[in-house]
Design goal:
493 residues, alpha+beta, D-amino Acid Aminotransferase, Chain A, domain 1, Creatine Kinase, Chain A, domain 2, 8-stranded antiparallel β-sheet, 14 helices, 18 strands, Phage phiEco32-like COOH-NH2 ligase-type 2, COOH-NH2_lig
């Protein structure tokens, strides 16, 4: 970001200002208002309570486009188009992303919950009553016994309720997957404890509960403050990672990483659940965070050498990638701090990191989706940053590792510039991502490459970035059967 400073502003046309209760509330909260879109700056972030234009092509959007190449972030730009889709199409899109959905299913089984989403967080949650519903209902008394009973005056679900986190995660992912930045998801919690999406709305958050309204106010103010700060100065992202690889015996069997690595170490191990049992098959590296992709890659190499020392004298082979062993997907999560987690930044990461790496995967790697490797997979971290979880384990080579770090830094620091070239905003390209259709993905990734070349950061990391896109152009893919130590020049002892 950086350059000309911008503001987060709420668009309310002059004709709608008089007697607008929600407008008055925003003013009390200190959220700047805008009544004329032609006055918007190129780095502004704009939201509207009532949408802009028809199917994203109305006069409001034309006003934004008239500003030139650099246009504001227009939140929920696709809301009208999304809400014009059939229930069947919305359900198809959500299921493609691995999300349980039965849009329009108003069955009486279980409990309906409405989740209000702003950005990438839930700001409100409440039970939705159906006609004839008793005054007292139970929300999955088996799993959430402590909070199981809700009386009529307790329809608001507090943040400490155990259903909050799973309902938030599902709802946020659904809103994001449909190209929205805020809205409501209606989910159904079954009597057995499963949840699925049954409805989607793109309207501005309307919250009556005082506690949850305060949460929305705080998030809006925080976003406004951070947007103004980031858009008015250089953005510097600090990078981290926790890539995984697996040890295989000469017979091809998985070797438990916990025999050689402690869970808490920088060269440690990680667990998975297999048929309900917790096992530790993965070696996980945790390099020291740094702003520099090359320094981070060097620390990954250091930890690989530590791993070599701990397994010295064994005959194991080391494997990375997406799924070198059937049924055991590997991750190459990239950590980012010093930058705000926004929908715009996450979409930049999907297009500049997730999409190029998708084109370098071997064909069988797509089988891990949609359970793993879905677009927009992100998790906030206690330290204040977040981890981007879409990529597989790029440990297959040092050059790919460096390329992934450089692309992540470019996406994080230049999400504003890259917003003009996001092919994954097109649902056809999104379909191609999950299907592995190279005929659609190749021109898409070429557009992303050109956009990255126009950023200021490209010159500093040109070799690393070019390596990734050159490999894509040559039709290359990594070999998950190869021992990763060979390309990292780690001695095999």
């Amino acid at each position: 970001m950086g350059g000309h400073g911008g503001s987060f502003r709420l668009y309310i046309p002059e004709s709608e200002k008089k007697g607008n209760v929600r407008r008055d509330e925003m003013e009390r909260w200190g959220i700047p208002l805008l009544s004329d879109l032609s006055e918007a700056g190129p780095n502004d972030c704009l939201a509207s309570m009532d949408g802009f234009g028809t199917n994203g092509k109305g006069t409001a959007l034309k006003a934004l486009q008239s500003l030139g190449k650099a246009t504001p972030w227009y939140m929920n730009v696709s809301s009208r188009a999304v809400m014009s889709l059939s229930a069947e199409e919305i359900e198809r899109r959500l299921r493609r992303e691995g999300l349980p959905a039965r849009i329009g299913d108003e069955g009486r089984e279980g409990t309906r919950i409405q989740v209000t989403v702003w950005g990438l967080e839930a700001v409100g949650m409440k039970r939705v009553r159906s006609a004839g519903t008793s005054k007292t209902m139970k929300i999955n008394e088996v799993k959430y016994r402590r909070f199981s009973t809700f009386a009529s005056e307790q329809d608001i679900i507090p943040q400490e309720h155990p259903i909050w986190k799973p309902a938030e995660r599902l709802s946020v992912r659904a809103i994001y997957a449909l190209g929205l930045d805020f809205g409501q998801a209606t989910i159904r919690l079954s009597d057995s404890g499963t949840i699925c999406v049954t409805g989607i709305s793109s309207v501005w958050p309307r919250i009556s509960d005082e506690v949850q309204a305060t949460r929305l106010r705080d998030l809006l103010q925080l976003h406004a403050d951070r947007w103004e700060k980031e858009s008015g100065s250089e953005v510097h992202a600090t990078l981290g990672a926790d890539p995984e690889f697996v040890l295989l015996s000469p017979s091809g069997r998985i070797v438990s990483a916990s025999k050689f690595f402690a869970p808490e170490d920088d060269a440690g191990c990680d667990s998975v659940r297999l048929r309900g049992e917790k096992i530790w098959p993965l070696v996980e590296l945790r390099p020291r965070p740094t702003p520099d992709p090359m320094s981070l890659t060097a620390d990954v190499r250091r930890l690989l050498r530590v791993a070599a020392e701990r397994t010295a004298g064994t005959l194991f082979s080391w494997h990375a990638g997406a799924m070198p062993v059937r049924g055991l997907p590997l991750g190459g999560h990239i950590h980012l701090s010093g930058v705000e987690l926004t929908g715009e930044r996450l979409r930049a990461l999907d297009n500049a990191v997730g999409l190029p790496l998708r084109l370098l995967e071997p064909p069988a790697a797509g089988k891990r989706r949609p359970r793993y490797g879905t677009l927009g997979d992100v998790r906030r971290q206690p330290h204040g940053g977040f981890e981007y979880r879409t990529p597989p384990s790029w440990l297959v080579s040092p050059r790919l590792t460096l390329g992934a770090f450089a692309l992540a830094k470019a996406a994080a620091e230049h999400s504003r510039e890259l917003a003009a070239s996001r092919p994954l905003d097109d649902d056809g390209v999104r379909d191609a991502f999950y299907e592995g259709d190279r005929t659609v993905l190749l021109p898409a990734v070429e557009a992303v490459y050109r956009a990255i070349q126009d950023t200021e950061i490209y010159a500093a990391h040109r070799a690393a970035i070019d390596f990734v896109f050159d490999a894509i152009a040559r039709g290359r893919s990594w070999n998950e059967n190869a021992d990763i130590r060979l390309k990292w020049h780690i001695p095999i002892r």
